[in-house]
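ok trying this again, last paste got cut off
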Amino acid sequence: ITGTLTGLTGLTVASGGASISGGLTVASGGASITGATTINTTGTANTQIGNATGTFQLDSSAFDVSTAGALSGITTISASGAITAATTTNTINGLIINSGALSGITGYTQTSGNFDMSASTGTFATGTGQVTMNGSTLIKPSTNAVSAFQIQNASGNNILNIDTSSNANLNLISNPSFEQNTTGWAAKGSANISTPGRNQTVRTQGLYSLGITQTANSGDGASFNYSFAPSTTYRLSFFVRTPGTTVSAISFGRTEGGVDTDCSTGNQMDNVVWRRFSCTFTTGASVGSNPAIYIKSTDTTNGRIIYIDGVMLTTGSTTYPYQESLVTLSGTIDSPVLFKNQSNSTNGFEIQNSSGTSLFQVDTGNQAIYSTGMWIMNSGTNSTLSNMYTIGSTGATAYDVVILANESGNPRATTTTTARDPRVLGINRYTATSGSSTSVMFYGQTTVNADATSTAISVGDQLVTSSTAGRVMADNNATSGIIGYATSALASGTGTVSVSLNVTKGQSTPIFRNTADGTTAFRIQNSSGTNLFTVNSSTSQLAVGSAAVPANGVLTVGTNTTAATGGIYFGTDTNLYRSAATTLKTDNAFVAGTTITAGTGLTVTTGGITVTGNSTITGTLTGLTGLTVASGGASISGGLTVASGTTINTTGTANTQIGNATGTFQLDSNTLDISSLGAISGATGITSSGTITLSGLNTAGIVKNSAAGLLSTGSVTLGTDTTGNYVATLGSLTGLTTSG
C-alpha cells in the first residue's frame, strides 16, 4: 500500500508484519496493536515514536528495550510501578538522565554499574519514600568540597555535613595515607617499600598503611620529595608502628641539598599501638636540590618491618589532627554510642579546641585517657595518673623513679643518685632519651625499678629514691624522697616491685608558714585531738605538753601541775618541773658551772649543791644538807648560814682557806672546833671576847712550846736546865733554891 491511508477504523496486519516507509501517523483515538508485535527499522536510521510536544504512552504492562538499543532524548519517564529488567540476565546498564527527573518510581534496583547524576545542578529526591542501599556504597565527589555530602531537615538546615577539603588544604603531602598507591614515596637507604608495601591489615588512617622492610643498616626508611620554601617553618607528623619488639629508634626530619637534618631522634616504635610523633623545623635560606621529608630507623635488626601512616606536613609550628575530611553534626545522639578504632593508637579518640589544642585524648593501646596535660591510665598493673614532662640529660628507662631537676633553667624529669631525694617526681612510663617527651606517673598502682642489694623490700615497706640511678630502696624511717609503698617483695639484688604511689617530696630544711598569723598557727595533736605542741605566731610563743597554751614567755612547758611528769626530763633520771606556785624544782642534783643567782633564796632539800670553778652564789641558801665547793673555791657575799651539825670539809689533800689576807674571819658560834688532823695557819692574831679553849692543852702547868712550834703545858724542872735559860727567862727569883 502506497500513499496515505485515512479513515481507517481498524488495521489488521497478518503474520509477517508490515513495512511502512515515510512514517505512520495515527490520528486521535490511537491505534491498537495486539499480539507479539515488533516495531523495527531497516537500516541504521532512527525510529521515532511521538513528537517534540506530545507524550508517548504505553498501555502495556511492560516496555522492553533490547540490550542492543537505548532510549534517548526523553525528558521524562513516568511509571506507576517499578522500572526493572525482565530477568536477572536482562538488566538496565548505564541509565543516564542528563536533565529532567525520574518520578513516580516506587522501587529502583541497580545490581551493577554506577548511578551517575552528572548534571551540575539538580537533586536526587525521593519524596515520601526512601532509598535503600544494600552492600557497599561509595559516594565520591569529583572534586573535594566543603559540602561534599549533606543531610538536611525539612527546613533545609544541615544535620550532617561532610567536608572533604578540610585537611586536604592544610596537608602538603599529596599521598599521606597510601589509599590508592605509593606515588611520591621512595625507599631510603637499603629499605624496601614494596614488601610488604601498601597494607590493609596493619593500618590506622583509612584502609591502607605503608610497610617498610629494613636491612641491618642504620638509616633505612622512606622519603617523600617536597619543594620547601626557603627560611620557612614546617611541622611534620606521622603515625608509626612495628610488629617486632618495641625499640626507641625512629628519627625523622628533612633533606636539603642531599644532607639529612634530624628534627627528632630516638622515638619509640611500639608493637601494640600506633604512636604519633611530631617535630618543627625551619628550612635554610637556600633549600638546595632534591628537598624531601624522611622517616628512618637507627635500629639494625635485619628484616624489621616499619609501618607508617597519616603523614602530615604543614607550615607553621602547630600540630593539626590528621584527618581526611571534616564531619559536622548538628544534632543530638540519643542512643548508646560505641567508638571502636580499626587498630589501637595513642590518639584513638580526641577532642580539641578551635585552635587544634588537644583537650581530651584516648590512648586505646595503653588504655589511657589524656585530659589537659594529665593521663589517666588503667591497663593491667598500671592504674595511674600521670603528667607529661621532657626528659633531662640522663635519659630514663621505663619504670625508673625520676626527680624534677633544673637544667639551665628548664624543668626536666631525670634520674638521681641521691638517696631520699626531696625532688622526687614520680615514675617514668616509657623509655625516653634526653629532650624527648615522656609520661611521669605520680598516683595510683604501677611498677618501679628497685634495688634490694642492701635491704630486702617487703610488702608494705616505704620506698624512697636510692643511690642507684632510677631505682628505689626500702626505708621506713625516711621523711623525704618517698615514692610510695611496696605491694610486692624483692628479697635481694635489683629488679622491679609493684608500688602504690604516694609521692612525698619532703624538705631537708622544711619551713612551715601560714598565710596569716594566729594563736594556733601550727599544732601537733594526739589521736584524740589534744594539743601536744602549739605555736602562737601572733605573739611568737610556743607551748609544749598536753593541753599547754602559749602564754607569758617564749616557751611554756606543761600546765599548772606539781609533779615531775608535767616538767622536763633530761634522759631518764633527771628532771626539772614546777613543784608549786612560783617554784622550780629538781628531784636530783643540780650542778652550776658559773653563777647561780637567787632573788629570794635558793632551797635545796636533798642531794646538796655542787659548785665548780670560780662561781658566785648571791642571795640566801637555806635548807642545805650538804654544800660541796670544788677546787677554785667559792665567793659568798651577804653571809653563809650553816645549820646545826653541818660539816665544812674538803675533798683530797689540798688546803682549805677561810678568809683572806686583809679581812677578818669572824665566828658567831660560841665554839670553834679544829680536829686533831687540822691546824690554823697564817693567822697573825686570834681575838676572842670570851675564853679560847685549846683541847690539846689538858694538863695543868706552864704553857711551853717545842722546837717544832707545838704548844704544851706542865711543870718546869729547872735543874735540868744546865744552860740557865729558864732562870734567865724567869728573871731574878727571890727565895728560889737551885741544885746546880
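PB: full thing came through this time. The mean pLDDT is 79.
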